[in-house]
Specification:
Order of helices and strands: HEHEEEEEEEE
Strand order of the largest sheet: 2-3-4-5-6-7-8-9
Strand content: 35-45%
Number of helices: 2
Radius of gyration: 24 Å
Largest sheet: 8 strands, antiparallel, barrel
Length: 130
């Protein structure tokens, strides 16, 4: 007694393939995510004098004089910020991350530091205590 291999796809396989294909088409047909790269003036108005964080590893208070009071991985740090065109450049002295210049991107999920219009690191603004 032997068995024969069928060359016909099973109904369950065909249903899974159609469902997967349909989901792919549905996702491809969704409207693109709204992404706005903020200008230096918009970044200055939104962030300067505020504290930003990734929610876990670091927190930077961007002071109006161009200095930064930072907390990285539980360690207090100092740094500087400036603009290079519309890019916010952050340099934390002896920091965990290298100095870098970032776009500030506002998209459907919130704010992010990014590069060439692509979000790289989601950030939050911590309300300033007065």
């Amino acid at each position: 007694m032997g068995f024969a291999l069928s060359t016909q796809p099973s109904p369950s396989w065909l249903a899974r393939a159609l469902l997967t294909f349909g989901i792919g088409i549905a996702q491809a047909g969704t409207s693109p995510q709204h992404v706005q790269v903020l200008t230096a003036q918009e970044v200055r108005k939104l962030l300067i004098g505020q504290t930003i964080t990734d929610g876990y590893h670091w927190r930077y208070h961007l002071k109006s004089d161009g200095s930064i009071d930072a907390l990285e991985l539980g360690r207090a740090r100092k740094g500087r910020w400036h603009f290079d065109a519309h890019l916010l450049c952050i340099n934390i002295i002896a920091g965990a991350a290298p100095s870098a210049c970032w776009e500030l991107i506002h998209d459907d999920k919130g704010l992010a530091l990014g590069f060439q219009g692509h979000p790289v690191q989601d950030i939050q603004i911590i309300p300033t205590q007065r």
